[in-house]
């Protein structure tokens, strides 16, 4: 068995071990497990039954992680993504007037379009067309986004009606627990303690339980059962259906491409990882949830040493087991997750060194991506601004020939998407 695992996942070639991959999988799971609770809450606003969306979230993640683990041998975690779920609920369903069943049909169609792009030369054309400065800008932007989420989860920053955000109340017990957890987690990380992220989650969770700071579970179970195969494709004759499908496909293609370029330790795994993401998107619509993406939280497992598909498979198995432990997972405090997100944000920030900061036409579009991903709370919107401004600034200095034609097309589509969403 050991030889088969070594042969299939090529552990020695990746300079890793089975134990390290397991720890990376556990780390990724604890970092992304909040999606089990949060994703159904957002989809419920679209009319999807909460419990059905919860089970769909779990099973799509399980199958997607197993697929990318075995097919791509990649440590990337595929799960319904934040931002895309809001686009599904508040733009496709509430904004365009589609029913949630028709919305799921649009998810399936967008996934099919994504698969076509992922399995044809379109993938390579798009990948080559995105400038390196924007790719690294995406990495940094996602890192800042994760850090911002972590700071919020931990109560270190909070909403302000006057200044958007402000320093939180550092005397609050949960915030103090976050700060203590941050010191523990950071110490584990800089000392390269194997499984440090997992240990910090367990320690902080135990401390929260001891001081009665564990969040109260509000999960509702059994409200309507499974909602698999409720996608409605009958709206294919309407303009709204195709606008929703093409907009979603564009978002999925560009976001997954940016995330994978930013996180994959081995760029040779890009093609199969990208194809796995496309397959996962189709699966999402069929099972009853918003599209899955290559999650930014995968960076936590990669930082823990995950290099192969065992990381993703471990996470998938844990998601399956979570069916029996949902109330326990809901009890893991934000203070346990926040330090990991902040540290991973700092790690991803290092990619800024690869941006040509001495060339304003390259650095400014990247800067917009870095700034607007966290400030708009949307990876998609941050990408859009950077992609739109890049050809504009190049044309302004007479370098329009240096911009690949595909970039002009993507910039136009992003701009069109903004216009349609504002109507």
Short description:
Helix content is 67%, strand content 3%. It has 423 residues and is mainly alpha-helical. The chain has one domain.
Please characterize this protein's 3D structure.
The protein is mainly alpha-helical and 423 residues long. The chain has one domain. The protein has a two-stranded antiparallel ribbon with strand order 1-4. The protein has a two-stranded antiparallel sheet with strand order 2-3. Strand 2 and strand 3 form a beta hairpin. Helix 2 packs across helix 14 and helix 6 runs antiparallel to helix 12. The chain is globular and about 60 Å long. The mean pLDDT is 88.
Helices and strands in order:
Layout: H1 2-9, H2 18-32, H3 35-44, H4 50-72, E1 78-80, H5 84-93, H6 100-118, H7 122-129, H8 132-153, E2 157-160, E3 164-167, H9 173-190, H10 196-210, H11 239-263, H12 270-287, E4 292-294, H13 298-303, H14 309-321, H15 326-330, H16 334-348, H17 360-375, H18 379-396, H19 405-422
Antiparallel strand pairs: 1-4, 2-3
Helix content: 55-70%
Number of domains: 1
What fraction of residues sit in β-strands? Answer: under 5%
H-E string: HHHHEHHHHEEHHHHEHHHHHHH
Q: Determine Rg (CA atoms, Å).
A: 21 Å
Beta-strand segment tally: 4
Main features:
423 residues; mainly alpha; two-stranded antiparallel sheet; 19 helices
